[in-house]
Write a structure and sequence with these properties.
Helix content is 27%, strand content 22%. It is α/β, with parallel strands linked by helices. Strands 1, 11, 14, 15, 16, 17, 18 and 19 form an eight-stranded mixed beta sheet that branches. It has a seven-stranded parallel beta sheet with strand order 3-4-5-6-7-8-9. The structure holds pyridoxal-5'-phosphate.
Length: 338
């Protein structure tokens, strides 16, 4: 089974999102191992294409890519400064007064950033907390101040304008670089761009970046093919019975590889070229059964993710989002970078 990752497409997606926000610096979010695609390859490729600002969720993710990037790459850690963390060479995004005071006590003179909560109520300082430390925090020279939008994938959602107004109220006149937009916010237009945009999923070919180039192709090997008579069952729970005589191929990946079990019985397909072959029966841990009756010859590999069935299509079928499909892709695939 093979996961093909098109680095040129990631770079093209980054350039396209950067072009949406020409007055801002376009960072790259490479948390969760670059959304499952391999931060050790993706981050240096983005650096070579000119990206200098990177975001990870956790200190260990930052530690993993720090040696792979030249010193002028800025690696921002969204979880901020947790007690005991080794933040050498990293920039923590400080989310609370507690993190701010810890960081300034332990890392005086070292770079830091600030996250404010503009309404999502997930991470960042509340307006009153910020007001209380604002003078001291600005005097310490934050690299930038950021916040995050909860509903940027819904352009008409009233929370977007409300969060924008809240962010402006807290930061106008600060004289510090500001960042509000991830992929969705970048597409909301110039009001949301400020100085740094932080696209993640759009780089990797996911919604809400409708014009994204596909990045991932996932093809699975056919281990075995068999004829099944009308009325016979296939797979765990005997949830599927052949409606007629048919030919079933068993391929070599399953839910342990991030092919969600909730895809079972929902109309997902594997593709042989342009030919769609339905998944039948339940997705097992390591195996999937596919109705290949319509194929004249069964190829060595069938494609699950590709142009015919992009990550967001698969996500819709499974009842989730492209982000979860990407970050669930397991570690058992042979990865090829194009
Ligand atoms: C994950 C994340 C991003 C990137 O979001 P996408 O929707 O993937 O573009 C940006 N900023 C923060 C704070 C995040 O948590």
């Amino acid at each position: 089974m093979g996961l093909q990752i098109d680095i040129a497409a990631i770079l093209a997606n980054h350039a396209a999102l950067a072009a949406q926000a020409p007055t801002a610096r376009a960072a790259a979010v490479v948390k969760a191992d670059a959304y499952g695609l391999g931060a050790a390859t993706v981050a240096p490729a983005l650096y070579r294409a000119g990206v200098r600002d990177f975001f990870v969720a956790l200190v260990q993710e930052g530690r993993a890519i720090r040696p792979l990037l030249p010193p002028d790459a800025r690696i921002n850690v969204l979880s901020g400064h947790m007690a005991g963390a080794d933040l050498t060479g990293l920039t923590p995004v400080l989310n609370s007064p507690e993190q701010f005071f810890r960081d300034r006590a332990m890392r005086p003179g070292q770079p830091f950033a600030i996250q404010l909560d503009s309404g999502m109520n997930r991470l960042g300082m509340e307006a009153a907390e910020w007001a209380a430390i604002r003078t001291e925090a600005l005097a310490a020279g934050p690299a930038f101040i950021m916040s995050h939008l909860a509903c940027a994938d819904e352009p008409d959602h009233p929370a977007n304008a409300a969060q924008l107004a809240a962010f402006r109220a807290m930061t106008d006149g600060c004289g510090v670089l500001r960042s509000l937009a991830a992929t969705g916010g970048t597409l909301l237009g110039p009001d949301y761009h400020f100085d740094i945009v932080r696209p993640g999923v759009g780089l990797y070919g996911g919604q809400p970046f409708a014009d994204a180039r596909g990045v991932v192709t996932l093809s699975l090997r056919v281990i075995q093919t068999r004829d099944v008579r009308a009325g016979e069952m296939v797979g765990y729970g005997a949830s599927w019975h052949a409606p007629r005589d048919c030919r079933i191929a068993t391929v070599d990946a399953g839910y342990a590889d991030g092919i969600l079990r909730s895809l079972s019985g929902k109309g997902a397909h594997l593709f042989a070229g342009d030919m769609a072959c339905p998944i039948v029966g339940r997705v097992s841990m390591d195996l999937i059964t596919v109705d290949v009756t319509a194929l004249a010859t069964v190829p060595d590999r069938l494609t699950l993710i590709g142009p015919h069935q992009p990550i967001d299509r698969l996500a819709d079928i499974a009842g989730t989002i492209g982000y979860e499909v990407l970050t669930s892709l397991g570690l058992r695939y042979d990865r090829t970078y194009l």
